[in-house]
Design brief:
Layout: E1 3-5, H1 22-29, H2 37-49, H3 53-73, E2 78-82, H4 92-99, E3 104-109, H5 112-116, H6 119-122, E4 129-134, H7 140-150, E5 160-164, H8 176-185, E6 192-198, H9 204-216, H10 226-230, E7 236-238, E8 244-245, H11 262-265, E9 267-274
Parallel strand pairs: 1-4, 2-3, 2-5, 3-4, 5-6
Antiparallel strand pairs: 6-9, 7-9, 8-9
Length: 275
């Protein structure tokens, strides 16, 4: 087991079983068991509008695995994963440390139930180090402060910031572009942004119904066009193949669902370098 930073086990905290949470709905779509009836009901409501919800979730997860592996092979040894969600192996640190065992990872999420299961996020390679902090991406300064307080990430060295299937749960009122700029601003040149984001480009009417379903479940959401997603990478250099539908990003045999359409995946994915 690698070095661990304890996330405050034993703290009493409300687990939010009374309202659906996007992380637990995602866990349900991935076939996980860390979700409540309210999450399952909301997820099934989404599935009634979008039968491929599970396919999209699995495609997103597969993109994360490929992107992290790619970044580790490019020499990145530090990762900050915001919007971690329920641990589902292989987790980000397992992918990164399978390439380079010395990789260090800071996980961030605002769902208190992730804290309960965070041991799975802390069981890393002996040479590496992982930590988990509870913070909300809508407060980027607090996210950065929380990560810095753990001492796992060296902000003087390149870092990969992972924002996977997160920003479509940040509406315009919370200024998502400013959030990304603030987080990237703190990272040195040579750092990377890895991002995936839901889109209604391929089925706008269906996705409006999905957004309505999430909103009614208490989880505001907002899909964006390709041009709008591309804006998150302003000032950064996209690496090949650029911003594409998730299952097309450096596709590998056996990585994610096969024989799927862009409409079934309905999320854009890209990785870009800070110059």
């Amino acid at each position: 087991m690698g070095q661990q930073s304890e996330p405050g086990h034993g703290r009493r905290t409300a687990l939010g079983q009374d309202k659906a949470h996007s992380a637990r709905m995602y866990d349900y779509f991935l076939g996980g068991k860390t979700n409540y009836a309210v999450d399952r009901d909301a997820a099934e409501h989404v599935r009634r509008h979008f039968a491929a919800a599970e396919t999209a979730a699995r495609a997103n997860r597969a993109f994360m695995h490929r992107a992290v592996g790619c970044l580790a092979r490019l020499g990145v040894r530090q990762f900050i994963d915001v919007g971690t969600g329920i641990p589902t192996p292989p987790n980000l640190h397992e992918v990164a440390q399978s390439v380079a065992p010395q990789c260090r990872v800071a996980y961030v999420d605002n769902d208190p139930i992730v804290l309960v299961y965070s041991d799975a996020l802390l069981d890393g390679a002996v040479e590496g180090e992982t930590c988990y902090v509870q913070a909300d991406v809508t407060e980027p300064a607090a996210v950065l402060d929380a990560v810095k307080s753990e001492g796992v990430i060296d902000f003087g060295q390149p870092v990969a910031l992972s924002l996977h299937a997160l920003l479509h749960f940040i509406t315009g009122d919370d200024e998502p572009y400013q959030i990304v700029r603030r987080l990237m601003q703190e990272l040195p040149p040579g750092s990377y942004l890895s991002l995936s984001h839901g889109t209604g480009d391929f089925a706008p009417d269906i996705w409006q119904a999905i957004i309505d379903a999430y909103t009614q479940a208490g989880t505001p959401a907002q899909v964006r066009t390709r041009a709008e997603v591309l804006q998150f990478f302003d000032g950064l250099e996209l690496i090949e193949p650029g911003l594409v539908v998730g299952h097309r990003w450096r596709a590998e045999q056996g990585s994610g669902p096969s024989l799927v359409s862009d409409a079934q995946v309905s999320l854009y994915a890209g990785v870009a370098r800070k110059l």
